[in-house]
Amino acid sequence: MSRPPLPPFTAETAAQKVQLAEHAWNSRDPERVALAYTPDSVWRNRDEFLTGREEIKAFLTRKWAEENGYALRKQLWAFTDNRIAVRFQYEWHDEAGQWWRSHGNELWEFTPDGLMARREASINDVPIDEKDRVIFGSRS
């Protein structure tokens, strides 16, 4: 299976890869999102360590069950031949109705067929008032 755009990345193809990831994550569909990763992909997400698509799907299912109203924006930060650095923000609310803005950075490493083999994510959450939200739904 191939997942274009493929490395080696240019500024244009790296930006495309980031936008495709944003669209997929905003779908909140763990099956769809997991297809972007190798079957043995290695993740660090905050303080969790995952290996493989099945663990990724389980993690995403749990994540989106807890993070209601999830809306994400990703931005290309830097790239090399087969690596991309991303900064992102997303907003969501918990079961009690508290809104949060989560800020983070991701480091991605890709195989030649364009699947992500490694993802390192550092994320911080800041409580916000609903009136202070700036991210709504998917970007067109």
What order do the helices and strands come in, and which of them pair?
Elements: H1 11-27, H2 30-34, E1 37-45, E2 48-51, H3 53-66, E3 68-79, E4 83-93, E5 99-110, E6 116-128
Parallel strand pairs: 1-6
Antiparallel strand pairs: 1-2, 3-4, 4-5, 5-6
Structural account:
With 140 residues, the protein is α+β, with helices and mostly antiparallel strands. Strands 2-1-6-5-4-3 form a 6-stranded mixed β-sheet. The protein has helices at residues 11-27, 30-34, 53-66, and strands at residues 37-45, 48-51, 68-79, 83-93, 99-110, 116-128. It is 26% helix and 44% strand.
Tell me, rounded to a whole number, the average pLDDT.
Answer: 97
Which word captures the global form? globular
Helix content: 25-40%
Q: Give the low-pLDDT segments.
A: none
Helix and strand content put the structural class at: alpha+beta
Distance between the termini: 27 Å
Sheet-strand content, in percent, reads 35-45%
Biggest sheet, spatial arrangement of strands: 2-1-6-5-4-3
Number of helices: 3
Count of DSSP strands? 6
Order of helices and strands: HHEEHEEEE
